[in-house]
Amino acid sequence: MTLVVGLGNPTKKYENNRHNIGFKLIDVLIDEFKATNITKASLKGELYKSKDTLFLKPLTFMNLSGESVNLVVKYYKIQRVIVIHDDIDLKLGVIKLKHGGGHGGHNGLRSIDQYIGKDYDRVRIGVGKPENKEDVAHYVLSDFAKEESECVAKVINHVAKIVHELILHDINHVANKYITKQGICP
Predict the structure, then answer these.
(1) For residue 138, is it within any domain?
(2) Residues labelled catalytic
(3) Does 183 reside within a domain?
(4) Which end is more exposed in the chain, N or C (fewer Cβ atoms within 10 Å of the end residue's Cβ)?
(5) Whole-angstrom distance, CA of residue 122 vs CA of residue 75
């Protein structure tokens, strides 16, 4: 069984934040896969199922995402985990795939690493970077600008296709087919 995790923060307050791009993708995927809600409070997240794939939005807030991921991995004896997350080191429109590696300061990934290790696939979605390093927390918790909305829609559509492929194929096959260095937005 495969677990696809979208990282974000629960509640309406954070709904359109850069940090919530993973949640946005899970919403699209559960619709496309016609996944059924199988949420259990004990798993600390919204959980959906379609055939041999589970889709998770941890409700523990970003910094504690690993708690929910770990509970689902253990409960369902998950063999493969795919995590979709924002990445400030990539400009908006750039998408990269990676297996394992460091968390790069991303607290959601840091939490997952603590609970299940680094042996999982990652879909890194560029959200851009603030001019000042000190503004990172404010930046990722801010909404995308209106002029970015067209690019964000393209990114969500493209990443949904990537995840469909990742569920069926290994990460290298999918990267060769879908990833470009310049990104998908002009």
Answers:
(1) yes
(2) 19
(3) no
(4) C
(5) 21
pTM of the model: 0.96
Residue 112's pLDDT band, with cuts at 50, 70 and 90, is very high
CB 37 within 8 A of CB 22: no
Residue pair 41/53 in contact (Cβ under 8 Å)? The answer is no
131 falls within a domain? yes
Does 186 have pLDDT greater than 90?
no
Angle between helices 65-76 and 107-116 (to 10 degrees): 40
C-beta atoms surrounding 52 within 10 Å: 10
Q: Which residues contact 89 (CB under 8 A, 6 or more apart)?
A: 104, 126, 129
The CA distance from 185 to 166, in Å, is: 22
Structural domain boundaries enclosing 127: 2-178
Mean pLDDT, residues 102-116 taken together = 96
How many domains does the chain divide into?
1
In a domain, 82, yes or no: yes
CATH number at residue 131: 3.40.50.1470
